[in-house]
Structures are given as structure tokens and as C-alpha cells.
Amino acid sequence: SQQGEEDPQALSIQEGENATMNCSYKTSINNLQWYRQNSGRGLVHLILIRSNEREKHSGRLRVTLDTSKKSSSLLITASRAADTASYFCATVPRAGNMLTFGGGTRLMVKP
Amino acid sequence: DGGITQSPKYLFRKEGQNVTLSCEQNLNHDAMYWYRQDPGQGLRLIYYSQIVNDFQKGDIAEGYSVSREKKESFPLTVTSAQKNPTAFYLCASSSLRQGLIRNEQFFGPGTRLTVL
């Protein structure tokens, strides 16, 4: 079963705009992770945020976590055409041991 | 170069044949995983292993088998019992934290399997 669900499923923006993707999950978590996948490639880890953290930054990426709403968001600022990819959230449950992936958001950044 | 490799990149199989997908890592990670990805979908866990000579079923293990004879290697066999094997297969590895699989995972480039 998929714990995290991303919204929107697809997003198309112009280069230079910001892109926001959301992830909702159902059970209490130990941590939440965001991954990126270029078409036909493996996934690349972007950020891990723990349940006691509310916000993390990495370059142009900003991740927030609201455990009361069981949701997270990934913000990519000043997007570039090279950011075109699918973005997945994945959760590790508090009482569990395994990473569970959502269905992903397909981001297209038009030059 | 540290990393995780998969081979082959593309694989074609006739119905009724078993095929084996290779996965190797030199990251010294204890845990390794196999995922299946269907078009436009997320990843589903097939099998995982936290230690040599031990592995556990994931959500969709039926029709698949694995072995973990070496820390660096975790091959996946897609058997003829898998009814719909055409998919993109991803291997990953991670270190353990306090003996648990909670860290970020490192992925290989994937193998695209097509049944003819």
C-alpha cells in the first residue's frame, strides 16, 4: 500500500517560477524523504526530514513538514528546465522499518 | 567511484522464461532492496535484505526470488510465475541506523524488462 500521496499528479510551469508539490500520508512517521527521478533513470535522494523537524533547506529546495496535518511540501525556487522530473515522497513509519513511496508528481519546467 | 549498478539496462524475455537481474553496490551498505515501477506509478517493494543470507518479502513478492550470498550483490530472478513482469526494476541500498532501515536509499539506474 502507498502511504504517501502527492498532489498535484502533474505540474507545468515556466522557467524561473517556483514549483510546489505536496505529500499527504496516513500514519505517524519517523521521517519523510523526497526523491527525484529523471525519465527512465533511478531515483536520487533530495532531502530527509525527521518527525521533530518542521522545515529543511537544501540549495533551491525547501521542505516543510506538518505532522498535525500529516503532510509535507517540497518547494523548488527559481525553477530551471533541468528540474523537469518526477518527484516522490516516501515515508518511514514511526513503528516500522520500511520506506513507502507515493505515486509522484511529474514536473515539467518550460524554458 | 562508489555506487550501485544494475545490469542489463534492457532485458527481453519470452513468456515462460526465468530471467535474472543483477544488482551490485560498493557502498558497504548492509541493506539492499528491489522495487518494481509501472508506467506513471510509484515504487512497490518486491524484496529486501538487511544482512547476508537473509531477506524478506515486500508487498509484491509473488513470482520473484532473490539471494544475498554476498554483501555487495542482491540479484533478482523474475520467474515464469510472475504473470505481468513487464516493468522497470530498481535496486537500491542503504546503511542501517540503530539496526533499522530508516536512512536515505541510493538507487541504481534500473533495468527495463519487457516480455515478448
List the helices and strands and how they pair.
The complex is a heterodimer of chains A (111) and B (116).
Chain A: E1 5-7, E2 10-14, E3 19-24, E4 29-37, E5 43-50, E6 55-58, E7 61-66, E8 71-76, E9 85-93, E10 100-101, E11 105-110
Parallel strand pairs in A: 2-11
Antiparallel strand pairs in A: 1-3, 3-8, 4-5, 4-9, 6-7, 7-8, 9-10, 9-11
Chain B: E1 4-7, E2 10-13, E3 19-25, E4 31-37, E5 43-51, E6 54-57, E7 64-66, E8 76-78, E9 87-94, E10 106-107, E11 111-115
Parallel strand pairs in B: 2-11
Antiparallel strand pairs in B: 1-3, 3-8, 4-5, 4-9, 5-6, 7-8, 9-10, 9-11
Low-confidence residue ranges of chain B:
none
In helices, the fraction of residues of chain B equals under 10%
Task: Characterize the largest beta sheet of chain A: strand count, sense, and whether it forms a barrel.
Answer: 6 strands, mixed
Count of helical stretches of chain A:
0
- Radius of gyration based on Cα positions of chain B: 13 Å
Main interface: chain pair and counts: A-B, 24 and 26 residues
Largest sheet of chain B: 7 strands, mixed
Summarize the helix and strand pattern of chain A as letters: EEEEEEEEEEE
Task: Assign a percent range to the helix content of chain A.
Answer: under 10%
Please give the number of β-strands of chain B: 11
Quaternary state of this entry equals: heterodimer
Overall structural class of chain A, as computed from helix and strand content, comes to mainly beta
What proportion of the residues of chain A form beta strands (DSSP E)?
A: over 45%
Low-confidence stretches of chain A: none
Q: What is the overall pLDDT average of chain B?
A: 92
- On the 0-100 scale, what is the average pLDDT of chain A? 93
Molecular shape of chain B:
globular
Question: What is the element string of chain B, with H for helices and E for strands?
Answer: EEEEEEEEEEE
Q: What portion of the residues of chain B fall into strands of 2 or more residues?
A: over 45%
Number of helices of chain B: 0
